[in-house]
Design brief:
- By secondary structure, the chain is α/β, with parallel strands linked by helices.
- The chain has a single domain, classed as Alpha/Beta hydrolase fold, catalytic domain (Rossmann fold), CATH 3.40.50.
- It is 36% helix and 16% strand.
- It has helices at 20-23, 101-115, 127-138, 163-168, 173-180, 186-197, 206-220, 225-241, 248-254, 274-281, 297-300, 302-316, and strands spanning 2-6, 28-34, 37-43, 53-57, 79-84, 120-125, 143-149, 259-264, 285-290.
- The protein has a 9-stranded mixed beta sheet, sandwiched between helices.
- The radius of gyration is 18 Å and the shape is globular.
- The two termini are 26 Å apart.
């Protein structure tokens, strides 16, 4: 694993921008070369070294910056890192072009194996929740606790807001959408995303909105932006249709780690009614429901999510001794999607 420093970047939420001076005591971004992929990894406060490790995984179209509101609230509890999945944020596309849930999970596993940080407190949102579920199921040795915010687990009746994601997965739809929206300004695109993902977009500060627009402008200049979006959307759809032992609900039942589930009552992408099924499926779970939250509760209500994680951490107790969990011994993340 090789690592190089990248310049500090602004957060895409209500946090202030991080200047080079401020970044020395705050977030840092580095590039990590792994077999088959290069990942950008965002680190939290340098004062957390020696604490139990945590890893945060974002959702479709997001980045490691989606966790910048939550990570500081867990300072003193965990040594947090957030990854940009291949093709998102500051991570380039994967070498093999595999944007499936399995492919993303494999990248997370390879990073944890190379960094020797496991077992970690693993967080995932949306697509990242599906990825984290798969990682926890196939490599229990890498996961101490699992915290999922609106995880993208299969639904029979999907939310109306999720239909565009399904359509994006169809061949040629990304090109069609690009042509149909070429006149949209970055501001219009950001407002649309926030209206879809937030329970109340008004919670985003003016500075947070400006940061999001700047990030949108940067992403639209990337030649692989829409390809990464379309292929990852296709990966979610494929994962929804996958059955047997590699189905996501079946893998949820295999998760051994204590699990925190967070669902928003105003989520337009993942149905609030799936919360109860998730609570039944994960064998050692606790449920936090936030009636006014949308799809990104860790950005809208970071204090509540942090408090729920502290309770999970207290209930989980100290890590078990060596040999308590049998290692998976492989970076394979299952077949299919």
């Amino acid at each position: 694993m090789s690592s190089t420093e990248l310049p500090p970047v602004p957060a895409v939420n209500a946090l202030p921008k991080v200047s080079p001076v401020e970044a020395e005591g705050g977030e840092r971004l580095r590039s990590v070369r792994l077999p088959g992929a290069t990942l950008a990894v965002r680190s939290g406060s340098s004062g957390n070294k020696g604490l139990p490790p945590a890893l945060y995984v974002h959702g479709l179209g997001g980045s490691s910056q989606n966790w910048s509101a939550l990570m500081p609230l867990l300072d003193g509890l965990v040594d947090g890192e957030a990854v940009d999945l291949p093709g998102f944020g500051d991570s380039p596309p994967p070498d093999d072009g595999d944007y499936s849930v399995t492919g993303h999970a494999r990248a997370v596993i390879r990073y944890l194996d190379a960094a020797e940080r496991g077992p970690v407190h693993l967080f995932g949102n949306s697509l990242g929740g599906a990825v984290a579920t798969r990682v926890a199921a196939v490599r229990p040795d890498l996961v101490r606790t699992l915290s999922l915010v609106s995880p993208a687990l299969p639904e029979v009746f999907i939310q109306r807001g999720a239909i565009p994601t399904g359509l994006l997965a169809l061949p040629g739809m990304a090109s069609l959408f690009t042509r149909c929206t070429k006149e949209w300004t970055p501001e219009e695109r950001v407002r649309g995303v926030m209206a879809l993902c937030y329970g109340d977009p008004g919670r985003v500060s003016p500075e947070g909105f400006r940061n999001a627009v700047e990030e949108m402008e940067r992403r639209l200049r990337l030649p692989y932006f829409w390809d990464a979006m379309a292929r990852s959307a296709r990966g979610i759809v494929n994962a929804y249709t996958l059955g047997g032992q590699h189905g996501l609900w079946r893998q949820a039942e295999r998760v051994l780690a204590p699990t925190l589930l967070v669902y928003g009552g105003r989520d337009q992408l993942v149905s609030f009614r799936m919360a109860r099924r998730a609570a039944r499926s994960f064998r050692d779970s606790r449920l936090l429901t936030l009636p006014d939250a949308g799809h990104v509760a860790m950005m809208e209500y970071p204090e509540q999510v942090a408090a729920a994680f502290r309770e999970l951490l207290a209930a989980a107790g100290p890590p078990a001794g060596p040999g308590a969990v049998v290692a998976g011994g492989s970076d394979r993340a299952g077949a299919g999607s």
